[in-house]
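Fold this sequence, please.
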Amino acid sequence: MLILASASQSRKKLLENCQIEFIQISSNFDETTIQEKNISNLALELSFQKANYLSENIRKILLPKEFNTVPLKILGCDSIFEFKGEAYGKPSNKEEAFVRWKKMSGDFGFLHTGHTLLIGNFDSTTKIFKNTEIIKKTVSSRVYFSKLEDWEIKSYVNTNEPLVCAGGFALEGIGGKYIEKIEGCFSNVMGLSLPWLRENLYR
């Protein structure tokens, strides 16, 4: 059984579309406690901390009975967009989102998604997750943006979509029409590399 340690709706949708059985539980890990200058490494560390924090607090969660009898896997992910060496998380406001898009217009950046899969068993008696294996990797995709007019950027920012997305855009949403091409894993840009998950989930 798989637990997605994330509140992300895009990751949830990816798993549902692939008919992967899972439950979704937000890890509630405080991301501000992690300091790491390398953006790719930061995404990986955050993914691990999210999964690990949930595993350490799993006793507080009422899991379905079927989780007591099968191997348990906890998936943590974190996505950070890198543009010219700078980390772009979620814009704090519309003004910041507009300025970012002005810079990204006609250019490219890298979407880094850290993936951590904790594999183990849940002891229903002690309410403890016993970890037996940790699989970690950052998957990076290069994202190319169309050259946009200011009115297009303003129109997109006013939808508020950029304010809730890493990097200020959503490939699967309204922002998809502003992305010219992707080099690398497509689903990774939406927050979860499905090829990576398939390789490690069923091996």
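Residues 2-201 form a domain with the Maf protein fold (CATH 3.90.950.10). The CA atoms of residues 94 and 158 lie 7 Å apart.
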